[in-house]
């Protein structure tokens, strides 16, 4: 008879090999778990590694701790019983007060041990194994009682019945392993039941806490509302009293002031008349100052109107004669600053007008291809051959874009186009003005028109700023 017959009703020949492998793996893994759990109690580093990397490590450690605690309690309990109930079989007699009489000693000495029947070595080993197994089962039962494990006592009945068969078959070691495995499984099941009970208690406590919380919040809200109503009522009463008091004080103060004012008016008519005369003089002076200021503002507005008219003429797509507003600006302005700026604008420019910025931008786009065609003509040799070479070579060269450094014609044109795209006509004019030779000749007319437009625009902007500062009284 082997171990399987003690725990399974199925004959060994009918068990399939997967079950055998699974049970063998479980038998091999269980001692490893037990050994690792015991070693983790002595080494902190291994305990930390065991808990982080091994599944169910916390359950094993907690189970080992509870088993060790219960075993210690059981051992202490058994030792206490042994001290209280020592038998006379070993030749020891207990005396209540710790004294041993001569008769008891003589009886103990005279008592001769009975000769034990001779036994074979195999029977002695079987009896020792049986005794160990019985002690192990008794220990498990006591632990189950101490832990109050309901389902464990019933399962241990089968274990107790199987002890005799295990001893007879000589499968003590395997029986220990199987019993250890069953014991661990029972402990784990019990721990799961305890954990489920704890979770149920926790959910009940949570529900109770939430109900108490809601009830307490409702009670607090009710108390707060009652207190607020009381405070509002007291505040209303206090405010009514304060208003009545202030009303009486204001009525008394008003009557006192009326009486005082009537007396002062009766006695101070002459003094008031003199004060009114002085106030009239002050008012007259203020009116004169206001008239002068209004006149000054009107003159400044008129001058600004002339300057705005000239700027509007500059922005007109067609050339517009702005000599009339320019002459009006000359006649109306009395400051030397404005006169000097107006003198700088030639009369033929005001009569003929200037090109607008948009017209200049359109003209710039027209002259750029012509400037590129003559970009490679030498300054001192403008033969037909050089013209043809420049025309062909310029069509093969890639156009540059952006703020490109360099003094070559393509670099200057790229910078000019960059400034034109940003709306900076002044910088584009400066770049084209740096051209030399035939490229400069092709762009010279556009440069002159751009200079005229910039000159008039800058002059009018300076005059506008000067007049605005004059209006504010800053100059």
UniProtKB/TrEMBL annotation:
Location relative to the cell: Mitochondrion inner membrane
Pfam family, one: Mitofilin
GO CC annotation: MICOS complex
Membrane topology listed for this record: Single-pass membrane protein
Domain of life according to the entry: Eukaryota
Coiled coil: 225-293
GO biological process: cristae formation
Transmembrane segments: 21-40
Assigned keywords, A-Z: Coiled coil, Membrane, Mitochondrion, Mitochondrion inner membrane, Transmembrane, Transmembrane helix
Main location per the UniProt record: mitochondrion
Self-association and partners: Component of the mitochondrial contact site and cristae organizing system (MICOS) complex.
Family: Belongs to the MICOS complex subunit Mic60 family.
Function: Component of the MICOS complex, a large protein complex of the mitochondrial inner membrane that plays crucial roles in the maintenance of crista junctions, inner membrane architecture, and formation of contact sites to the outer membrane. Plays a role in keeping cristae membranes connected to the inner boundary membrane. Also promotes protein import via the mitochondrial intermembrane space assembly (MIA) pathway.
PANTHER family, A to Z: MICOS COMPLEX SUBUNIT MIC60, MITOFILIN
Name of this chain's protein: MICOS complex subunit MIC60
Provenance organism: Rozella allomycis (strain CSF55)
């Amino acid at each position: 008879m082997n171990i399987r017959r003690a725990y399974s009703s199925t004959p060994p020949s009918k068990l399939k090999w997967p079950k055998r492998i699974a049970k063998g793996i479980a038998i091999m893994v269980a001692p490893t778990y037990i050994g690792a759990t015991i070693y983790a109690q002595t080494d902190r580093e291994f305990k930390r590694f065991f808990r982080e990397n091994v599944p169910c490590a916390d359950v094993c450690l907690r189970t080992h701790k509870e088993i060790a605690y219960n075993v210690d309690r059981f051992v202490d309990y058994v030792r206490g019983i042994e001290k209280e109930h020592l038998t006379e079989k070993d030749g020891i007699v207990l005396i209540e007060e710790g004294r041993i009489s001569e008769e008891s000693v003589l009886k103990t000495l005279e008592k001769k041990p009975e000769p034990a029947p001779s036994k074979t070595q195999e029977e002695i080993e079987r009896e020792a194994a049986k005794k160990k197994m019985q002690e192990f089962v008794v220990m498990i039962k006591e632990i189950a009682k101490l832990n109050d494990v309901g389902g464990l006592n019933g399962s241990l009945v089968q274990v107790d019945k199987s002890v005799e068969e295990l001893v007879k078959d000589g499968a003590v070691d395997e029986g220990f392993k199987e019993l250890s495995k069953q014991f661990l499984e029972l402990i784990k099941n019990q721990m799961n039941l305890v954990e489920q009970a704890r979770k149920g208690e926790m959910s009940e406590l949570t529900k109770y806490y939430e109900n108490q919380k809601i009830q307490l919040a409702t009670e607090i809200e009710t108390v707060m509302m009652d207190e607020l109503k009381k405070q509002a009522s007291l505040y209303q009463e206090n405010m009514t009293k304060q208003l009545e008091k202030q009303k009486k004080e204001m009525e008394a103060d008003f009557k006192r002031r009326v009486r005082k004012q009537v007396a002062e008016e009766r006695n101070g008519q002459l003094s008031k008349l003199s004060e009114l005369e002085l106030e009239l003089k002050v008012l007259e002076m203020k009116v004169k100052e206001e008239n002068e200021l209004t006149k000054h503002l009107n003159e400044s507005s008129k001058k600004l109107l002339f300057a705005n008219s000239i700027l509007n003429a500059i922005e007109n797509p067609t050339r517009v004669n702005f000599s009339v507003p320019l002459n009006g600006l000359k006649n109306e302005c009395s400051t030397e600053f404005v006169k000097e700026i107006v003198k700088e604008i030639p009369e033929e420019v005001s009569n003929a007008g200037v090109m607008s910025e948009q017209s200049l931008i359109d003209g710039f786009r027209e002259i750029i291809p012509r400037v590129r065609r003559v970009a490679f003509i030498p300054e001192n040799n403008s033969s037909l051959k050089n013209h043809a070479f420049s025309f062909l070579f310029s069509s093969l060269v890639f156009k540059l874009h952006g703020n490109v450094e360099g003094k070559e014609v393509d670099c200057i044109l790229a910078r000019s186009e960059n400034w034109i795209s940003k709306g900076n006509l002044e910088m584009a004019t400066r770049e084209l003005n740096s051209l030399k030779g035939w490229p400069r000749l092709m762009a010279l007319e556009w440069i002159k028109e751009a200079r005229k437009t910039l000159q008039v625009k800058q002059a009018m902007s300076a005059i506008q700023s000067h007049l605005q500062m004059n209006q504010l009284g800053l100059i």
